[in-house]
Input
Amino acid sequence: MIRPLALAALFGLAACVQMPEPETSRAVPPDIALPPMKTFGTQRVAQPIRSNRSIAADILDLTFELESGRPLPILTRFEGPITIRVHGQASRSLYRDLDRLIGRFRSEAGLDVTRVAGDMPASITIEVVSRRDLQRAVPEAACFVVPRLSSWAEFRRNRRSARLDWTTLETRERMAVFLPGDVSPQEIRDCLHEEVAQAIGPLNDLYRLSDSVFNDDNFHTVLTGFDMLVLRVLYDRELHSGMTRAEVAARLPEILDRLNPRGRRGPDGAGGATPRRWIEAIEAALGPSGTSPSRRAAARDAVEIARAQGWDDTRAAFSLYALGRLSIGAEPELAIASFLQAGALYRRGSDTELQAAHVAMQLAAFALSSGEADVAMQIVERNLRPVAEAENAALLSTLLMVKAEALAAKGRAAEAETVRQDALGWARYGFGSDEEVFARLSEIAALSPARRRGGGA
Output
């Protein structure tokens, strides 16, 4: 229901490693010409690999609880065709990505979804507002969805009204998604995927999920095969609005066996509820308030809670990843150790390759800054595929920038420039403005010892 701003900011790639002082980081010529923006084409969607029994438990927890932990008494969904319209100053990339998303809803989830003109009535209204106005209204949100409304003006009038209480819904008829228009194309797309999916389907997020956007770790930002299966199940002919958790639970085994036959024999995923203590520790570590020491302490608490729970899943790995990110400047040895442990956990499964790639980006940056150009290139090469498949242009461009600097450090200037141009094309989608693109390029360039000595290409 709310895409968290704090987590998106923390994992925004800007702080790969501790940066040199400003006077040493003027490594990028101001006259570099940016190539055209790169965009993604046909997506390769991986289907869930775990058992239907495990998926059924996930669907119930996603559908019958809010992120706050409040229970939802009944299943709610749209009972008929779903229409989507756009209001506000929407970019061309928004319309392109929305149409791609609608196409996936239709082909993968079997939903009857259509985009209509902005002046027509619609089931879901996507309204584009400024980031400043959005955060002034809901400071912790990058974007969000609310029920029973169709405009930003309605939201401003009713923001404290019981009309927005999800627990009182009986069926879904009108939903409003609010997202910023003055951010990068990738940020807009990420909001589209998560918030439109929640307008249609699950309202909860689960940290135990390894292959879903319905997880506040924000690793997956494009709807996955698991997410589309969840939507297909929730809109199956055997279900309808008003059903209780027990009634839905009784129907899920047959529905899942019919829609996902491979899941009859799949392995179980991470099970069990996530203790509130761990969630609160993660929120304290990654939230916008608190000092750096207090946030590191909260991340340590999350690691200890995960160990006490006996976890070896994505929650344990995420705890370590958060500790690594928060320790980079203050305790680099702890940061590296935490990243290595997190990466080892993520590499255990084929459904956590993207998470492993996020960790690998940190390790590649450390290798580059330590003068280990060959190691940096090897790490990058091993992780480009899952990042591209997940359509994360910001991470893809950052990895390619690291590779370009490593090539330059090896004296391979022509190859470095080719890779750098590729990186810049993806950066225009992932980071947006020219200023942000050059800021990322300068940060990565400043990691290279050769650049800091005044050499390099």
